[in-house]
Amino acid sequence: MDSHQHFWRVARGDYGWMGEHVAPLLRDFMPDDLAPLLRRTGIARTILIQAAETEAETDFLLEIAARTGFVAGVVGWLDMESDAFPERLAHYRKNPLFVGLRPMLQDHADDRFILRPRVLDNLRRVAESGLAFDILAFPRHLPHVAEALARVPSLRAVVDHLAKPPVATGDLDPWRADIAALAVFPTVSCKVSGLVTEARAEWSLADLAPYIDHVATCFGEDRLLFGSDWPVATLAATYGEVAHAARALLGTRFGPAAMTKIFGGNATRVYGLPDDGLARSG
């Protein structure tokens, strides 16, 4: 399973992060673009992740998931500071394809956004709902995330992209200690994803290895999830190259049974998916 991929239709117009700095991404990416890449890499299911901070985006992705057999679930967006959050959470929770939410912490001007009182209250509601909570953050956010987790220890959280460590420079600190502090919480998992776009243009497996090795030590075989971050990753690598890098580097640490968890079983558990190992028809 690929636990982290996106679709978008540019004309929808709510992708505030898009611009000429990511020019190759300024086109539509839809299921027909991804399907052949999944077949070539032997990946049967995906988790579809939001890329815009609107409920319209969440509805758009759920509509795609309903007609796309390989999409096992959607991590959408809800306004975590809204008075209506409890009602909106209850509304989306009724849809079995809605398996988590993500507020895009990295894009908030306030690095302490996750610690705002209303956000913490709503994090508790997410925890009670049993949904997963994806953490899109930079290393500087991690101490605040750790504080939030200490206040909501039952939250089933997933750190996206290893929290985007500075792979291009090779620096490990303070990211190394801060990511280890999150791993102390047993309900927190980590996606092995998004590293190629944090690396230098001519990246190598050796550039990625120290970061993947560290999270392998911290989280172990039961709390790591493979994610492609397609199509964002195409800025730096093909889908096949991303999958190969994860398999090659994780394969030095884990045997076949553990790799099966990292490339499927763990995501099935974290996102509360049916454990049938098969894509839906459609």
From TrEMBL:
Residues 2-273 form the Amidohydrolase-related domain. It holds the Pfam family Amidohydro_2. Belongs to the metallo-dependent hydrolases superfamily. This is Amidohydrolase. The lineage of its organism: Bacteria, Pseudomonadati, Pseudomonadota, Alphaproteobacteria, Hyphomicrobiales.
